Amino acid sequence: MKKIVDFLKGDRFAEENGIKLLEIKSGYAKTEMVIEERHLNGMKAAQGGAIFTLADLAFAAAANSHGVVTTGINVSISYTKAATLGDRLTAEAKEISRGRTIGTYMVNVTNAKGETVAIFQGMGFIKKDMAI
Length: 132
Known about the structure:
- By secondary structure, the protein is α+β, with helices and mostly antiparallel strands.
- It has a six-stranded antiparallel beta sheet, covered by helices on one side.
- The longest helix has 17 residues, at 48-64.
- It is 22% helix and 46% strand.
């Protein structure tokens, strides 16, 4: 898994936004971000792109956890609750299915109270000739 963690450290956008990879294992990953001033929109709520990036890194980690490069080909997100300054958000990605070329993943983003903030679905293309 060290190779995969090192590979994901190349995601400078997630790093610059304070997102941390907490856990990764086969078909699973967990990320975390504390909402800071830099993450807020004009309504003083967490900007949707910040939450999306948190979920997207969890998706990428879970999808690439098998040691083969997997790239996102279709994703969607639904925001269910606003996050505000100081909220600690966690994104937990779980593999739903994985075939020869396609993997599907669900990512739940929750706050410290366990309330769902967003639901993210991702589909990845497995580049079977590109090991990490």
